[in-house]
Amino acid sequence: MNTKPIDNASSPEHQHDVEHQYPSAIYFQVHFEHLYHLMNELKAQMLAANHQIARINHSIEREQLSPGPTYPNKTSGTERNQAKKRS
Q1: How far apart are CA 82 and CA 66, in angstroms?
Q2: What percent of the chain has pLDDT over 90?
């Protein structure tokens, strides 16, 4: 008597069932192409944001290092009011 188990995995019916249970290769290709495109867009946006942040940091550093405008003989409103009270 032959006790060898029957291999249903190689039967055409089984392969047909497996093909219907899983998406086709083109689905994965389109899906990963879309993901690749999205990743490239995000990378470009991150680079642009990093450049913008660098420009903002540079302008802030320039403002902090450069002295503000000086106006000789100008006094604030508080100083003028105190001078008037003294006279």
Answers
A1: 31
A2: 39
Give CA–CA dist 64/68, Å, rounded: 9
| pLDDT value, residue 84 | 66
CB 17 within 8 A of CB 9: no
Q: What distance in Å separates the CA atoms of residue 77 and residue 33, rounded to the nearest whole number?
A: 66
What is the average pLDDT value for the chain, to the nearest integer? 79
Q: Which residue has the higher pLDDT, 54 or 82?
A: 54
Full DSSP string of 19-85:
HHHS--HHHHHHHHHHHHHHHHHHHHHHHHHHHHHHHHHHHHHHHHHSPPP--TT---HHHHHHHHH
